[in-house]
Amino acid sequence: MPRIELINITKKWGNFYGVKNLNMVIEDRDFVSLLGPSGCGKTTTLRMIAGLETPTEGIIKIGDKVVFDSNTNVNLSPDKREIGFIFQNYALWPHMTVYENIAFGLENMKWNKKDIDARVKEMLALMKIEEFEKRYPSEISGGQQQRVAIARTLATKPQVLLMDEPLSNLDAKLRLEMRTELKRLHADTDSTFVYVTHDQLEAMTLSTKICLMKEGTIQQYDAPLTVYNKPNNLYVADFVGNPSMNVVSGKFTKAGDDYYVDFLGYQAKFIPKGEIEEVSGDVTIGFRPEFVKIEEEGKIQASVYSTLPSGLETTIKLKIGEEIISSIVFGASDYVTDEVLNCSIVGANVCIFNKEGRKVSMGSLSIE
Ligand SMILES: Nc1ncnc2c1ncn2[C@@H]1O[C@H](COP(=O)(O)OP(=O)(O)OP(=O)(O)O)[C@@H](O)[C@H]1O
Ligand SMILES: [Mg+2]
User: Fold this and answer.
1) Whole-prediction pTM value?
2) Domain 246-367 belongs to what topology?
3) Which residues surround ligand 2, an ion (CB under 5 A)?
4) Structurally, what CATH architecture does the domain formed by 4-239 represent?
5) What pLDDT shows up at residue 368?
6) Is 168 in the pocket of ligand 1 (CB under 6 A)?
7) Does the pLDDT of residue 137 top 90, yes or no?
8) Strands 292-294, 340-345: parallel, antiparallel or unpaired by DSSP?
9) Is the minimum distance from the CB of 40 to ligand 1 under 6 angstroms?
10) Which of 32, 96, 263, 360 could bridge to 100 as Cys pair (CB 3.0-4.6 Å)?
């Protein structure tokens, strides 16, 4: 079964590292998202798994097969790796109709005509492109072409499906629908999915695991909720979540067995949850907007800077001294600009980051 393993994978162009010493195991039937900003090495990583890019160093295994090894000069060509690939710039055959494009891979695999027809019809329906089956790629929109590209790849039921931003050309509504379909598809097949996106929400909602990258290196490789709740560092904390995590500077001190943080003009006792790495002095304190609770008995005084009601929830920007933080509440509650109110920071997921931005502890804050 297709488990994918990358061992010490590096891709260099001259002195530039596109990907640096990447180690990652993608378990059978995982849905892994490679997430990160433009240029961080997502496409390069995917192309190395596919065999379309040759790593400078390292080993890649798919299932029990070593498909690449820089030490022994093993390098299987893409067609021997048994993978499906949907490119960022999907290339459809321009001289073939939508139907023929989808049927092409199945004909190569010597399926019989009746089975091909049934499978193509199934794919056309799944991707909601039945009406275009007789048209050529130049006669349909970019979003429709993208759906044909997905249909074409899925038709052959690949065991490993590599996708590079396959929804990038779709409008917002279709994108949402296709996300649901992709997740459903993953549940319905025995395939392993590796999915490239720079959209954190897409990665959060679709994946079993997120690999968050920065400048060719892995910053965190965990389940989405772990990445969200327990970010390894400030970069991860900031990249995942919308509105993003509140980060404010503070001072950390230890008195006896107790820990204290000074921040936003207040002193709070910090009660660590689990381990704590000793730090003192300057730190950054991070807390998600949903943990900022507006309540009368709150010990922190704030004024309403602005509110952004979406209907489902409202983001309230609160001014505390010179800092502005976000609070998020469910439902359509609204507040008056400049209104003075009280708030608390609740829950045990407050993160303490050291000077280098690495998380050293998590816990709760209590202001006397
Ligand atoms: N053939 C090449 N020669 C030199 N540098 C390259 C080459 N291909 C990619 N790079 C560089 O490697 C880095 C990683 O590129 P990659 O395409 O993997 O980024 P990405 O994460 O997919 O970005 P995007 O979200 O914009 O698609 C980039 O800085 C890119 O400029
Ligand atoms: Mg890319």
Assistant:
1) 0.90
2) OB fold (Dihydrolipoamide Acetyltransferase, E2P) (2.40.50)
3) 43
4) 3-Layer(aba) Sandwich (3.40)
5) 81
6) no
7) yes
8) antiparallel
9) yes
10) 96
